[in-house]
Structure formats: structure tokens, C-alpha cells
Write a sequence for this structure.
């Protein structure tokens, strides 16, 4: 069941992005920014956790989930440490993913060469 | 004055296209023109360590092999006119560094081939030069990274996007000898009808192509067996046809576009067709030049079309200015 | 020239081929859903085989997907998937990783410091900036209300 719901919810969230690309013909960077900010917003108002309950990885793997994690981190830390928590909470909670992208990205650049097209 | 009508220069003396040399990349070498190229390079780096260095090797080798094939010494070449798409036209300058002949670098984006041949013809007719080599090049990978996104970035190309041709074409112009002759040259105006979509270059350049082509036909009052534009692709070609049809001077049966000739649009996944400085250069140097030599056509109006934008000004919201230059050739 | 900036766009639209929206939608659904499904499978492996708590397994699963995406980008496969998957390969965390790895790879030839390192956030930088900024606002708002 988890697998099925991951596929269904994840697919919907991605397909919405495809409609955005085909309609507005914008660069992928716009799509990613829009998704992250939307994720923060949905996380902030508490809606996204409900989507995660239904969709499991289907909700956490898309970049909306990254935004949700950012929002949750900032809110949790703000409750604990106030202003400094709001400043650093999101960064702290999402650090593993960002660090992984940076480090594996660098490793890939060292190991591989761009392929010819 | 050697000028007729509004924009067309008439070549009174002999400007002979003595020979050409074309080098094409792998994808181009799998296309419908594969038997027409002098050389096909399968490796997109050609043993170099970057695409930029590979592109300059394309250009340098095209000129060297053109001279070797015809046994011309570099001291007999009065001028090398070259251009490409990269910033500061580095492919041309660095190829010229190795070639060691007087060099004029020109930039007309994808219109550079007709631009350089037109300038070469005028210099020869003016008596300033006897032998001129014109060369341009483009490379899919180097162009893609300069104008668009990193190559390994996943994503879809728009249906109207074009595929930059990997290749280089060199042409030897001379005031003597035998071969097809350049008879007139029309340099176009920049026309910009506000297209901002960098994935739709054909539509951005089509008005300029129409304008130059029509002006040339009005100025010279000639009829051509074949007229070709540089790299309008399917979208731009259809727009040009529509514009001429609306003027009641249909050119459909005599008009084609190098960007649609070089690839098999259906099978090669190039969407709207080929583009780039190299597109009109390799199509002219191989397919079109052979048609003139064989007598398949008696005359040709060869036009190259360019989009004179840059990623920086595009981001600043500017639209894409189009330009087209054409030269009339008779066998 | 009888066309002007005002009426030319109509001609352009008439001749510009449309993107195949339905096909793209279905493919984006399948690829995106598939990547999320893979994430869920990896997560379950961490939970059942390594006995990691669900929350942590979720993070580890994301990191694994990022590493996988880096590998596929390095091998030159991810952009081929992207050609079919469209947004389905952009929106998941693998797409974010791809947007980090692809410029890192591309600018390698300009050196590791001023090439790879200086350009690694060329596309992902905006995502982090606006993501962090929005989370800061969310944190501040949570303090006020």
C-alpha cells in the first residue's frame, strides 16, 4: 500500500510540474524554486504533513518535501531558540540532502567527464 | 557605383568559388547528406580535451585540408575571413593563430558563412585580394553550454528548438580559374519582430530572411533555380513561405532551408531542424556546391540567417534581432 | 514589412509545433511516481534490514537517491531519462541533485576551483536561496503567532 500511494502521490506532484513547464515554457530552475517555496508554505500552514501521511515517499521525495522539511526545521528551532532558531533551523534539518548533493556532485565531476551528445 | 536597387552589390569581375572543404560531426554524418561531406568526425572531442578546442580543430583542419587538396601555399592566400558562435569568436582566432595568414574575424551568428563569402567577394572584385578563404564552424556541445544549459542537465527540448550542427565548412574564392561565380551580394537589415523565445530561433529569424530575400529579388529581378536559407528550420521555413504567398510571389517550389536539408527531421530527433554557423557552411560546401558543379542547378541564391542575441541580454528581457545575408551564384 | 511586433506573434503561434501535453503528462507521472516508489523501497530496506527509525530512514533514502542521481548524471544517463520524464525527473530530489552535478561536470574543464566549485550552484543556488529565505520567514512567523 505504501508503495502504491508513493507512486500515485509522487506521480501527481510531478505531473503538475509538467503542466507548469508545458504551459509557461519556463526553465527548470523556475519550477524547482516554485516547488521549494510552495513546500515551505504548505509545511508552514501544516497541510504538507497530511500529504506525507497519505503519500509517504511520494510526498517526501519531490522538492515540495524538501520545502516542508525546511519549514518544519525552522519552526521547531524557532520555538526552542527564537530568532537564531528561525535563522538556522531550516538549514540544519536539510543539511544532509544539500551536503550529499554537493559532495557527490564534486566526486562525480572528479571521476567522470561530460558525455558527448 | 556597383550597387543596384536598395541593398544589392553587383560583382562585375570574376569571383570564382574554386573549391570547398567540409567536415561534419557524427550526427550530421548519419544524416541524408552523409555522402557529400569531405570528412566525418565520429568523436565529439576529436582527441582534444574540451569541445571548444575540438571546434577550433574542425575549423583549422577544414582550411588546411582545403589548401592541401588544391596544393595552395598559405602565402598565396591574401586573407582568411572566419567566424563562429563562441564568445570572442575564439574558434576562428585560435584556428587562425595556427594557420598564420592575414585574418579578419567576423561575427554574424549563424549568418556568418554568407557574410564572410560576401565580404570576400567584394574584396576580390575591388581588386584588393586575389585569393580569399572563408570559413565558419559550430559545435553542438560548445554552443549548447554557452547559450543554454549544462549538457548533462535532464529536461525536455521544446518542439520548436533546433539542433546546433557540429561541423565546419571552408570555401576558396579566387579571381581566376573555373567554377561557379558569385554575381551579387545583398547584406540584410536587422529585423526584430519581438520574438523572445530562445527555443524558437527559426521564428525569430524568419522576418529577416524574408526581408533580405525579397529585397534581393526586387533589386536583381532575377529568377533562381534554388534559393536556400541558412538555419530557419521547419518553423521559420513555413513562415517565410507564408509571407511570400501573401505577397503573391510564391517561392515554395524553389526554396529550401539548410537546417531542414542536413538532418532527417523525423528520424534524427532534431525537432525543428539544424542551426548554427556550421549548418549553412557544411550544406553549401557539400550538397549545394556539388549541385552547382554537376549542373543540377544553374544558379543558386545562398542565404545565411543569424540571431544576434546573447544569453545576457536575453535574461535582461531583450528580444532576438534577426539578420540575413545572401549571395547570388551562377555556374 | 507588413508585420509588426503586435501581429507577428500570431503567425509564430500558428507555425510553432505544440508540446505534446498529454504524452508529457503521462510520462512525467510515470517517471516521477517511479522515482518516489524507488525512494519508498529504499526507505523500507533501511527500516527492515538495518532497523533504522522511519524518520531517519527517510533522510537516508533521500541521500541515497541523491547519490544515485549523481552517478547517473556522471554516466551521462540522467539527461536521457529527462528527455522522456520531463518534470518527472526534475521535481524529485534526484532532479535537484542533477541540477547540482550537471554544472559541476560541465565546468570541470575550467578547473576545480573556478570551474566546478564556482558553478556547482549555478542552477541549484536559486532553489537554496529561496528555500532558506522562505524557511526563515516561516520560522519568524511561527514566533509571532
Amino acid at each position: 500500500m505504501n508503495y502504491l500511494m508513493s507512486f500515485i502521490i509522487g506521480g501527481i506532484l510531478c505531473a503538475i510540474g509538467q503542466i507548469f513547464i508545458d504551459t509557461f515554457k519556463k526553465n527548470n530552475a523556475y519550477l524547482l524554486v516554485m516547488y521549494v517555496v510552495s513546500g515551505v508554505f504548505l509545511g508552514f500552514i501544516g497541510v504538507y504533513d497530511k500529504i506525507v501521511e497519505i503519500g509517504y515517499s511520494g510526498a517526501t521525495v519531490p522538492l515540495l518535501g524538501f520545502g516542508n522539511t525546511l519549514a518544519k526545521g525552522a519552526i521547531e528551532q524557532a520555538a526552542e531558540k527564537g530568532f537564531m532558531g528561525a535563522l538556522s533551523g531550516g538549514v540544519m534539518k536539510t543539511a544532509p540532502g544539500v551536503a550529499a548533493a554537493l559532495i557527490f556532485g564534486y566526486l562525480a565531476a572528479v571521476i567522470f567527464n561530460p558525455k558527448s551528445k | 557605383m556597383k550597387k543596384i536597387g536598395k541593398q544589392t552589390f553587383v560583382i562585375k569581375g570574376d569571383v570564382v568559388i574554386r573549391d570547398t572543404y567540409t567536415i561534419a560531426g557524427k550526427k550530421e554524418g548519419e544524416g541524408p547528406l552523409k555522402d557529400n561531406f569531405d570528412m566525418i568526425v565520429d568523436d565529439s572531442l576529436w582527441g582534444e580535451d574540451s569541445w571548444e578546442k575540438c571546434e577550433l580543430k574542425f575549423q583549422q583542419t577544414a582550411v588546411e585540408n582545403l589548401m592541401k587538396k588544391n596544393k595552395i601555399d598559405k602565402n598565396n592566400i591574401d586573407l582568411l575571413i572566419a567566424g563562429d558562435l563562441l564568445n570572442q569568436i575564439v574558434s576562428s582566432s585560435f584556428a587562425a593563430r595556427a594557420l598564420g595568414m592575414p585574418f579578419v574575424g567576423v561575427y554574424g551568428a549563424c549568418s556568418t558563412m554568407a557574410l564572410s563569402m560576401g565580404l570576400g567577394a567584394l574584396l576580390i572584385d575591388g581588386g584588393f585580394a586575389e585569393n580569399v578563404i572563408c570559413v565558419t564552424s559550430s559545435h553542438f556541445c560548445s554552443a549548447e553550454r554557452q547559450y543554454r544549459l549544462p549538457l548533462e542537465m535532464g529536461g525536455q527540448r521544446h518542439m520548436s528548438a533546433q539542433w546546433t550542427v557540429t561541423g565546419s565548412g571552408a570555401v576558396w574564392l579566387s579571381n581566376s580559374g573555373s567554377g561557379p561565380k558569385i554575381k551579387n551580394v545583398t547584406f540584410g537589415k536587422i529585423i526584430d519582430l519581438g520574438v523572445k523565445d530562445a527555443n524558437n530561433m527559426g521564428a525569430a529569424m524568419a522576418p529577416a530572411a524574408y526581408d533580405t530575400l525579397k529585397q534581393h529579388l526586387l533589386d536583381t529581378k532575377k529568377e533562381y533555380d534554388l534559393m536556400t536559407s541558412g538555419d530557419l528550420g521547419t518553423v521559420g521555413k513555413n513562415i517565410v513561405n507564408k509571407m511570400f504567398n501573401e505577397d503573391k510571389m510564391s517561392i515554395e517550389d524553389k526554396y529550401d532551408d539548410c537546417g531542414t536539408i542536413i538532418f532527417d527531421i523525423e528520424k534524427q530527433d532534431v525537432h525543428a531542424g539544424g542551426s548554427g554557423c556550421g549548418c549553412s557552411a557544411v550544406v553549401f560546401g557539400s550538397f549545394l556546391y556539388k549541385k552547382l558543379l554537376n549542373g543540377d542547378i544553374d544558379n543558386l541564391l545562398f542565404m545565411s540567417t543569424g540571431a544576434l542575441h546573447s544569453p545576457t541580454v536575453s535574461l535582461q528581457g531583450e528580444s532576438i534581432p534577426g539578420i540575413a545575408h545572401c549571395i547570388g551564384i551562377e555556374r | 514589412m507588413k508585420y509588426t511586433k503586435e501581429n507577428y506573434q500570431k503567425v509564430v503561434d500558428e507555425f510553432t509545433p505544440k508540446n505534446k501535453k498529454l504524452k508529457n503528462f503521462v510520462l512525467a507521472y510515470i517517471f516521477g511516481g517511479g522515482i518516489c516508489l524507488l525512494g519508498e523501497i529504499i526507505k523500507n530496506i533501511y527500516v527492515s534490514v538495518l532497523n533504522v527509525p522511519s524518520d531517519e530512514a527517510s533522510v537516508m533514502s533521500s541521500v541515497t537517491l541523491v547519490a544515485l542521481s549523481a552517478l547517473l548524471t556522471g554516466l551521462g544517463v540522467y539527461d536521457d531519462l529527462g528527455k522522456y520524464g520531463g518534470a518527472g525527473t526534475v521535481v524529485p530530489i534526484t532532479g535537484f541533485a542533477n541540477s547540482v552535478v550537471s554544472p559541476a561536470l560541465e565546468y570541470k574543464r575550467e578547473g576545480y576551483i573556478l570551474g566546478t566549485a564556482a558553478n556547482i550552484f549555478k542552477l541549484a543556488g536559486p532553489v537554496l536561496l529561496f528555500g532558506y529565505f522562505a524557511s526563515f520567514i516561516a520560522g519568524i512567523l511561527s514566533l509571532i503567532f
Notes: Chain C touches chain B through 39 residues (CB under 8 Å). Chain C has a mean pLDDT of 95. Chain C is about 80% helix and 0% strand.
